[in-house]
Amino acid sequence: MAEMNQGDRPIGVETPLGKDAVVLTSFAGEERISGLFDFELQLMSNRGDIEPAEIVGHKVDFYVRFPDGKPRYFNGHVNRFAYTGEGDRAHVYNATVVPWMWFLTKGSDCKVHETGTQQNAQDIIDGLLSGLGFTDYSWDLNRTPEKRDYCVQYRETHYEFVTRLLAEEGIYFYFKHEQGKHELVMTDHVNGVFDCEDADVRLLSKLSQPELTDNLSSWHHEYEFTTGKFAHKDYDFEKPSTDLLVSKDTLVKLPDIDRNEIYDHFGGYMAKAVGDELAKLRMEEQESGFNSVTGSSECRSFSPGGRFAMAAHHNSGERGGKWVLTAVQHTADQGGHYFSGGSHSDEIYTNKFRCIPADVVFRPPYQAKPRVHGIQSAVVVGPPGDEIYTDEYGRIKVQFQWDRLGKKDDKSSFWVRVMTPWAGNNWGMVHIPRIGHEVIIDFLDGDPDRPVMTGMVYNKENMPPYGLPDNMTQSGIKTRSSKGGSGANYNEIRFEDKKDSEEICIHAEKDLNQTVENNRTVTVGNNETHKVGFDVQDPGDQSLEVYNDQTIKIGHGSGKGGQKVEIYEDRDVTIEKGDDLLVIKSGDQKVTLDKGDQIITVSAGDQKFTVEGDQITKVNADQIITVKGDQKVTVTAGDLITKVSAGKSETTAATSLELKCGASSIKLTPAGITIKGVKVDVEGTASVGLSAPKIDVNADGILTLKGSMAKINS
């Protein structure tokens, strides 16, 4: 085959195969802002045995020359290389050239990019690109992206993830080419572009200077109706009453444009000021498509992100305007032959382009996040050594089953809210999933950055508390003491629904406290047993506090049933105010003290006993009655008998002691004894003696002294 030589041809290619190992006959491709470029190269070679590994994945340079011979380079990686056949005098190949960023489309991940330290989109993208070994990029930002609490890449390619983050922040990108490399430039403002070498271009109706390459062959200026307002809203659970609705009106002036609005929810912000900024970005995205131009030219330097000025135009309104290229389609065809002595008179380069005014900032289209369809399983995590890890909102941290990089610690995720059946202002239900528990996670609106724990499930390592299926009729709540609790340390409320064995079991691992602020009614249909104390050596107390009344009925429904109370030590009953009433409608009352004393003290007030039948008091030892006031014993019917079987009876009075029966009386005072009666008989079966220093016997009537022998001694 004849020798191939690119020499000073208008287009050429440089590959790792060696100089002129392949030659470029034509290329076509498209570049666009915030998109990947893609070029198709047609190559010819004397070799028909080029192996894919020699070129696929490698960098190549190709170029088109300016009229002065200087090459305008394009650089990229070959991602496809194909042998298409043999021509008249050479082998023909096709190659596709893409940017290094294209390789991001070949990898995807499920990954939590943000765990402990807050990072913004720029930090996250830097970490991803550096981790993949890419360094040919730069940032040119006027606005610093907001810090993110949490950022998940979920079933997205790396390219989808990076471009989504850039679009969320209003950052556009383009590529700058030079020999040997191409650089990704990421920017967010109108001056983040560059000036084309074809800085001043002209559109002529009849090209009087066809040799110039800075001419435009077509210019189509168009305007497209856009929306008049963008509004969005979000929600911050830490400030639930704060209205985060924000909106931004367009700067475009068109009839009735204000009645068209785009509204979205979950705007991705927690502060109104941030929402205002993001709404401005979304509105600018809509406005960037309002005023645009499509055209064609031979300007070799045209590339997305390039800026040029309209130097000449038949419409004076177009002259002097500055424009930024947003997309360029390149076409170059060598024509002729590439063999020594061949002609190249038919070579041609053209492009088609789209541009917007240079004072309008380009905003990439907003990309929706991937949605999580359905619930997911995760494991509760926390710091090493902890059993429970939560914050003031009862949130937890989890590690998803798809997370390959998490260490199952407090860095595996940000705080995840826990759903509960009831959540009021300092009331409701609380249950904090423990570290190691498997939980079910749902996502607000399917957003992977907004997880919510909705439930928990058992697994082989965490089995149900009641052996199944044997105890399938049992249900309940059983906890585990923490920290360091074992299976024997728990609180529990258990229900047994097995027919004829129904039961409610309540177990308190330590204390059980009940508070009833009004009535409490307990009905026991059979026996009730209260036991205070423990069979083991671990002491414990029970406190029962009733705010208002307490009513206990035993056997009320069946008409039978008793109550038995056993107290091993002291029993104190205090009634601070009111009465103590004990009514026994039928039956006896017995009080037995096996050992010890019974003391009844009435500190203020009276004590009354009413006995409808007999009262028997039996004292086996001494009985002492002390009365500070009066003591009265009244027998309304029957007798009063005082009997001292052994010993003596003694009655002592300080002022007087008096016995009365009708008109008769015996009165004892410290001064003497007075006996009064209608008739007084003194009879001694053996003798009666009267002895005193002086004895007076006085009778108003007859005085009779009678005896078998009467003696009067003086």
Automatic annotation (TrEMBL):
Chain ranges of the Gp5/Type VI secretion system Vgr C-terminal trimerisation domain: 475-576
Organism: Fuerstiella marisgermanici
Name of the protein: Type VI secretion system Vgr family protein
Cross-referenced SUPFAM superfamilies: gp5 N-terminal domain-like, Phage fibre proteins, Phage tail proteins
Pfam families: Gp5_trimer_C (PF22178), Phage_base_V (PF04717), Phage_GPD (PF05954)
Family in the record: Belongs to the VgrG protein family.
UniProt-listed Gene3D superfamilies: 2.30.110.50, 4.10.220.110, Baseplate protein-like domains, Gp5 N-terminal domain
Residue span, Gp5/Type VI secretion system Vgr protein OB-fold domain: 391-458
Stored NCBIfam families: vgr_GE, VI_Rhs_Vgr
